[in-house]
Specification:
This protein has helices at residues 11-14, 22-38, 62-65, 103-122, 175-184, 197-200, and strands at 84-89, 96-101, 127-132, 135-138, 150-152, 159-165, 170-172, 213-216, 219-222. By secondary structure, the protein is of the alpha+beta class. It comes from Bacillus cereus.
Length: 224
């Protein structure tokens, strides 16, 4: 899993750099489109391993577009001390600028570190129960947590759980957000079809650090 490191921000910058301004997205979108047009279809993105999860796979490289196509990276961008990483989705058909809240990465890194320390002594993670095939809930008390860790949903603002797969990798569980999105989207949705795009369709955010989901009997479920 590709995570960001050193995600620490001066408190005085947090508020102004934590707002997903629509005009900033539009400015970056225009810069990306102009760059692509003037560079034979090449996109201004950082190189990532092919195995990188799809929503983290195409981060925008502001060094390629600033200052020629954009004056500088937006104030809320990670590169400027903000809390958002600007990424592209639909790169083959309609490259679209979206955001990842990198504060999620901090919490995932913290849990990943605790898991590593636990496994150094116990070999296996402290599984609590099976959620789905290859997806597990953890016993967080055994990892030293007094409260169950959650990340803030970029969609609802509610707390989302963290889950683990059989490889010991940590992911955000977006089922609550997907359940609400399914109620608002008529579909049709087919079982076996990845439904995560319904979250990013009408939002500036992508469901970062997520596993694939499909729908069964009108409800979101994990699937491989």
């Amino acid at each position: 899993m590709s995570l960001l490191t050193g995600c620490l921000y001066p408190k005085e910058n947090m508020k102004q750099n934590a707002v997903p301004y629509e005009d900033q997205l539009q400015v970056v979108q225009k810069a990306v489109a102009t760059f692509k047009e003037q560079n034979d279809g090449i996109l201004p993105i950082k190189t990532r391993d092919m195995s990188t999860p799809i929503y983290q796979k195409y981060p925008i490289d502001f060094q390629k577009i600033a200052p020629h196509y954009i004056q500088e990276a937006p104030g809320n961008a990670y590169e400027s001390g903000g809390v958002y990483q600007y990424v592209l989705i639909d790169v083959e058909t309609n490259p679209t600028v979206k955001l990842i809240d990198v504060r999620m990465a901090e919490q995932i890194q913290e849990l990943t570190l605790k898991l590593k320390m636990y496994r150094d002594d116990h070999q296996y993670p402290p599984f609590k129960k099976v959620i789905s095939d290859g997806v597990y809930e953890l016993d967080f008390k055994k990892l030293g947590y007094k409260d169950i860790p959650q990340v803030t949903s970029p969609y609802s603002g509610k707390g989302l759980p963290l889950v683990i797969n059989e490889k010991g990798e940590v992911f955000v569980d977006y089922r609550m957000d997907l359940y609400e999105a399914l109620k608002q989207n008529e579909g049709p949705f087919k079982e076996g079809e990845d439904i995560r795009n319904i979250l990013s369709k009408d939002s500036p955010f992508v469901p970062a650090y997520s596993l694939p989901y499909t729908v069964k009997d009108g409800e979101p479920i994990f699937f491989k």
